[in-house]
Amino acid sequence: MQDLFGDDLLATQGDIFSPEGVVEFQGEQISIASLATPPALLVQKITWELFKLGFWYKLRDLDCYLAWGCWDNDTVGREQLLHSIFLGEAGLVMWSESFPLETYGLWNNTLMGCLPYLENFRRLLCDWDDVLPCLTTPLTSDNFTDTKSWEVKRVVTTFYVQTFFDHFGRPPIVPHLLPMQS
């Protein structure tokens, strides 16, 4: 192996894969040795990240397919709309956002807290075929009530899951609320 890859690569692999090795995940240093029995919070963080990224990227893939005209006309604008569904500045970048310590974005517990994210998700879906009539009306602080929030979340979820299934032949991966343990 030394002949193919050189001493530097082998030394790096030794550092990464040795019991004394340390990896970084979301700004936190984690000992490789501790991964044999990982802490519950670390498992939750990794699970959350995988579900979140699976949701983000599959939503993007499906949107590129179903709203290809929007992507052709304004790639940057469509990418910005997609990113505006999710809290954070990183866009669709792996491991770069801190682990949520409270519900936020689409999952925000407050009515006005989830409004901009749900409105942007609704806007994205409106460019897909067979969008449901209740999704064609913009959500504003004037018309957004607890009842309207529940109705739109239910319809958006059902429409997204069914559309995903119709095109991929399986249900989508979506983030879940995890019980927080430290």
Provide a quick synopsis of the model.
Helices cover 53% and strands 4% of the residues.
Care to describe what's here?
- With 182 residues, the protein is mainly alpha-helical.
- It has two domains: 37 residues, no CATH class; 131 residues, no CATH class.
- The chain is built from six helices and two strands, in the order αββααααα.
- It has a two-stranded antiparallel ribbon.
- Helix 5 runs parallel beside helix 6.
- The radius of gyration is 20 Å and the shape is globular.
- 13% of the residues are buried.
The major beta sheet can be summarized as: 2 strands, antiparallel
Number of domains: 2
CA-based gyration radius? 20 Å
Give the strand tally.
2
Report mean pLDDT, rounded to a whole number. Answer: 78
Poorly predicted regions = 1-5
Ends: how far apart? 42 Å
Outline: globular
Characteristic key phrases:
mainly alpha, globular, 6 helices, 182 residues, single chain, 2 domains, two-stranded antiparallel ribbon
List the helices and strands and how they pair.
Blueprint lengths: L1 H16 L4 E4 L2 E4 L8 H27 L1 H6 L1 H9 L27 H15 L20 H23 L14
Helix pairs in contact: 5-6
